[in-house]
Amino acid sequence: MPLQPMKYGAALSCAALAYYPALASASEDDGSDAAAENGGQITVVATRNATLSFEYPGQVTVIDRDIIDDFNASTLQDVFAAIPGTTFDSGPRRTGDVPSIRGLSGNAILIFQDGARQSFVSGHDGRFFIDPELVQTVEVVRGPSSALYGSGALGGVIATRTITAEDMLGEGERFAVRLTSGYQSVNDEFRVGGTVAGQSSDGVWDALGHITYRDSGDIELGNGALLPADDAITSSLLKLTARPTSSLEITASYSRFEGDSTDPQNPQGNNLAGPDNDLVFRDARNDTAQLGLNWNPTSDALDLNIVGYYSRNAVEEDEVDDPRITDREVETFGILIDNRSRFTLGEASSLTLTYGGEYYRDEQRGLDTATSDMTRGGVPDAETDFVGLFIQAEFELDTPFGLPGYLSVIPGIRWDSFESSATDESFGIDDEEFSPKIGASYKPIPELLIFGNYALGFRAPSFNEAFADGTHFVIPNLSAPPGPRGPVFVSNLFIGNPDLQAEESETWEIGAGLDFDDLIQRGDRLWVKGSYYNSDVDNLIGLDVNTPAGCFVASPFVPPCGSGAEFGNTSQNVNITAAEIDGIEIEFGYESEIFYARGHFSTIDGLDIDTGEFLEGLIQPDILFVDLGARLGETGLRIGTRLTYATEFDEVNEPQDVRDDYFVSEFYLVYEPENGPLRDFRVDLGIDNVGDADFEVVNAGVFQPGRNLKAALTWSKGF
């Protein structure tokens, strides 16, 4: 069902809820099953506990497998159209995907895959290295989440959970198979994949294996142009679960993403290969492994999770017309331990304490075969160690202070310490931060929710920012006479900054929601939840580029031209500004036996406090998204349409950056019979950008894909 993840109702065991195995805290007696069956989305990441997302005192969206299937997604980026306040700053190509939440991106967004931090951040190589076919659920928490997750959660958290055997197996089944294939016309993409799952007769262990292959080519844009691209992607997953006792569960998983493409060195936007943007063979790899344990005996004091993980992201670029090879590799090792202790406070009130600690280490290595020492400019060999401790209390109060209804108050705080160093730098950076947060939601009547929250967030300077080294760019010295081989060139060099400070934010948010059951007919549900938020972000990190004037004109009155710090020809990351970001987010949905709808409206505005200029890289136009559908009786047919409207984007500092408003429509049809000879099959047909609209989302002049015909066939069988 595309509106609410109804399938959660039977899947709220620890393993099924484990976006992080270390966060698997739902038990059959905590009321979560009943909540899910009554139409509520369940969030795990927002509080590290299974909680109704509607009642969370903030904004969080859960996208489940049903909705991912309806999108017939080519990349995980596709399904983010259903999430307010979340955009991608990359462009039509698959490579270079960079998510943004409430205007913040890069190191200000935490990404998790099965509990493993994905710390790879690059200027143009993207951050997502997972195929949508592997993903069972995506959870996006919007707003500062440092009180639980530490550095990097300044803008929010994106957590994906990959499929498990439990997701595949029905009641009484020991084995299951799922085969898929699909095609889309806009880039001539073909995909094929398969999943196999099984469990022992006593349910003590289960296992799952999955593989998907995609191949695609040039992208047809809405303006009629053909954007060169060539991708071949293989994604695989192996997952094992053991339950030696009724209270102990052990999970292990390994996933691998292999993406081979031929595209410009900077593939973002509508960029083409050329003299300043070489065509490269790009080899992107992601390996993620985790081992988790959940011990949940019949005790209110213990619900213990331990997870260790390893992730490796690497992007190698081999220039097509040159022997030069560059590489960037980031490895992350981490361990997280947390526990939940539950207390009863009177007849109808309770307290859940969630507390624990985390250690993780990021290591980066860079390579450039064109340099004498094989180091890569802007990619220092460096490492950062993080240690964090956190505690959160969830007070659930019935008839609080004699008032009618139900009150939830969630205060929390986390302490983090970090140390960074680089191989070729004489200095290191270290700091520590406290990140408090408090949220409250009040339901005076079951249909009405009022909520608010206040949070401080931070993100530590990355090693690329603190220890940037090597050559940034090369320019001709126009003030010097040319030599026998042409102009004399000089280099602008990156230099490190030992005084770089962490970015910090202060955010408050207020909102309300309405939730009605049996509104028009028996069994239906209508809900809406909206909020206004305001964030003050200090010490934003930006690149300060200096080039001596003597490089452009010969004069005794200007600094002479040369390379590096001696001549002031440098680039350095510095704390340059403070920003104010605010916006509105509204989500809504309706579900009945015949009709369903879900959608959202969002605004993001931002100003540089010092200059009063618009923060064009952070803000977006106002966006309205609606997904409407209907089920055609007992036929197994379902038809739907997705509509997106964006207002004109005119909050710009230069007139040429204005983007027109746009309206884009999509159509999809799903045939999934429950009975008859085709009951194990699912057919998806769709058209994206039905009107072949020519529109801009990322920046002015960056056009999106045109009309796209899509089809997929899936066969699933349990034994």
Automatic annotation (TrEMBL):
It comes from the Bacteria. Residues 55-157 form the TonB-dependent receptor plug domain. Residues 249-690 form the TonB-dependent receptor-like beta-barrel domain. It is found in: Cell outer membrane. Belongs to the TonB-dependent receptor family. PANTHER family: HEME_HEMOPEXIN UTILIZATION PROTEIN C, TONB-DEPENDENT OUTER MEMBRANE RECEPTOR. This is TonB-dependent receptor.
